[in-house]
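ok so for the tutorial part 2 we go from a plain amino acid sequence to predicted structure tokens. step 1 is just haveing the sequence, like this:
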Amino acid sequence: MRNVIIFSGLVMLAFLGLSASEVVNIYSPVYMSRETLENSVKYIPGAREMKQTGKIYYLAPYIFVNERYKGVHVINNSNPASPVNEGFILAPGCMDMAVKENILYLDNAVDLVSFDLDSRQVTKRIKDVFPEPLPPDELNFGYYNLPGRPEGYILVEWKKEQ
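step 2 — the prediction. this is what the tokens look like for a chain of 162 residues:
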């Protein structure tokens, strides 16, 4: 029994030592006015560097790759040996997407947006469907009440403090 207590104590000390040395990341919210958000989704031709990718969706011949909080890369995969990054669908706050027929459904921060892939235009927006995103490490409690939050602005991204 004594050995179990000693072992448990050592495990607890090791755990406390590891948790004390962890780095705590601090994130700042990035806000956008409702009007700017509603006019933000657009197709931008040409390749864009992939930095913080997320979900991937395939609808022949295209591959759609989410760029966390930024939008969606459009990659033509007609020739799998040489895919072409054709463009980018700018959508601040975008973290998820789905495609059915020629419509890309994506989140534009708190809104659900239907984007026609043929016309490259927003066809429908449903406001306030999603909650605002949590900080990446989800340890920043109470961020909704941060001082200085402008009225009528929506949280679209979290930026890591340097």
